[in-house]
Design a protein that fits this description.
The protein has one domain: Rossmann fold (3-Layer(aba) Sandwich), CATH 3.40.50.150. The chain is about 35% helix and about 25% strand. It has eight helices and eight strands, in the order βαααβαβαββαβααββ. The protein has helices spanning about 15-20, 25-30, 30-45, 60-70, 85-90, 130-140, 155-170, 180-190, and strands at about 5, 50-55, 75-80, 95-100, 115-120, 140-150, 190-200, 205-215.
Length: about 220
């Protein structure tokens, strides 16, 4: 539906350019990866049906389509840095109350305490200011809100090798983390972690998932 424009992203231009380029083929190219990781998220959400959800780095809207199929009464806001990824999402004409916003994760263009759930899937390794992003996620949540974070896990040797290669070849890439390092950042940002696990998408992709509560927002 609605797509709003954000401020210039400046130093984040390599990420924006990379995903603008990937946008037309993203769903087809990474089908298995998308299927496994988003299915994992859906299994832990336990939605009642009318929650307000913020999907950070929403990409082409694949998660939105899956969520509305199960719970058509949801209210979803998808934020992404790449206008072409958002254009792909809009082109799907997903049936449901969804708003697409161009913006970055460390400075989300949404009000305080507006969402019951924040989801961040498969993008944390690109964030230049990971702690700032987590603090933004918490700012957006109501006091009883939850965060679901899924990303690559550096506890797997394949991910360590992939990280080393990407640091040399991909200007958009920033960093992958171990579960311990990611948990420490979540706690520092004020979250309470009540579920965490590792899982594999394939021999290459080792993933981690955290489900957190917003803690005491005072």
């Amino acid at each position: 539906m609605e797509q709003k424009q954000a401020l210039d992203v400046g130093p984040l231009e390599p990420i924006k350019a990379a995903y603008d380029s990937l946008a037309p083929s993203y769903d087809r190219r990474w089908r298995r990866y998308i299927e496994v990781s988003l299915s994992k998220i859906i299994t832990v959400l336990s939605l009642k049906g009318a929650e307000r959800i913020l999907d950070v780095a929403c990409g082409t809207g694949e998660l939105e389509g899956r969520l509305f199929f199960r719970r058509p009464g949801l209210h979803i806001t998808g934020v992404d840095l790449s206008p072409r990824m958002l254009a792909q999402a809009q082109a799907k004409h997903i049936a449901g109350d969804v708003t697409w916003i161009e913006g970055e994760a460390s400075n989300l263009p949404v009000p305080d305490a507006q969402f019951d759930v924040v989801i961040c899937a498969n993008s944390f390794h690109y964030f230049r200011k990971p702690l700032d992003c987590l603090q933004e996620f918490r700012r957006c949540l109501v006091p009883t809100g939850r965060l679901v974070l899924v990303d690559w896990c550096d506890d797997y040797w394949t991910c360590k090798l992939c990280s080393l290669w990407l640091r040399l070849t991909d200007p958009a890439f920033f960093c992958t983390y171990t579960m311990r390092a990611c948990r420490e950042m979540l706690l520092e940002a004020g979250f309470d972690v009540f579920r965490s696990e590792r899982f594999k998408v394939s021999w290459l992709w080792g993933m981690m998932m955290f489900v957190c509560s917003a803690g005491d927002l005072g």
